[in-house]
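My current task is to audit a protein record that another person submitted. My question to you is simply how this chain folds and whether the tokens agree. This is what I was given:
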Amino acid sequence: MISREMKQQMRKKRKRRRNRRVMVLALLLVLIPTGVFATAFILKATEVSEKIHFDLGRDGSSKRDQPVEAKAQEPMSFLLLGVDNREGENDSGRSDSMIVVTVNPKLKSTKMLSIPRDLRVQVPGDSEYSKINSAYSKGGPKLAIQTVEEIFNIPIDHFVQVNFEGFVEIVDALGGIDVNNKFKFTDNGYTFEEGPLHLSGAEALTYVRMRHEDPLGDYGRQERQKEVVAQIIEQGTSFKSLTNFSEIFDALGDNVKTDLTVSEMWDIKNNYTEAAGNIESMSVEATSEKIDGEWFELISDEEQIRISNNLRTHLELPAEDTTDTSITDDPVEDISSSEDEE
């Protein structure tokens, strides 16, 4: 006959076994969806990265002795191109915006330079001067990169190109973005009040494109572009973005091109995200001149060198004081004579 004490011990053992089974079941319920989510995330990311990959036909920048490695957490540079390819596959349009981004994971900092689209340059291979945004229409992202590299004497390690029509989808997939508007204005049917705003994709596109009502003109527009890019980076690297990753990836796949590989993207995500939280905005100080009936932005040799050395230092490259530039080699008298002919 089993004593009362033995029965109590048996009941306790059965209860412990039931508790263990419940704990194991709960753990499986957590791990299985997580595993499915992680697998789906990786598969989707791989699929999209292959879709958006664009081979530049080069092994790193010609301005470096050897390509940088994201896995080694080396300072890295990017050229962000905003283009108006409304047909999706047509690369003939000019780049509407050009932003150089340098990231230094050791310093945990990022620098973002907006390049005026009307900057007067000599595109490599051309004998005449033109606006910098024409480089893209003449030779796609590869020539745009080469032009920026020659002007500022910096390496561009990778590029990311976004179709502005798809920009709307990307912002909407992120759930919108938050900005701090400097002044009230109305454009394209939208009114933007002064102060903090939450913008949809269509509103964000209008916000970054407007310049005629901005007292700073194109410079104000450039600042808004950098603000929005910084917000997209912040939103895109947040945990919240994982909940709707499929929608975000679909938006990226239809509207983005980059030379980054799948492994490079993962290494950048793992090693450079913290630096993306500390962004310093830079601008090109230029003067407007009308040459042969067309307005251009001109920068001095000193300004060109200042920008070059600032970015080179951030990339942990030696600063170089040189006036051998591609922008202002033409004599000043050529500009004045062109004005006199009008």
Summary: The chain has a mean pLDDT of 80. The chain has nine helices and 14 strands. The longest helix spans residues 4-52.
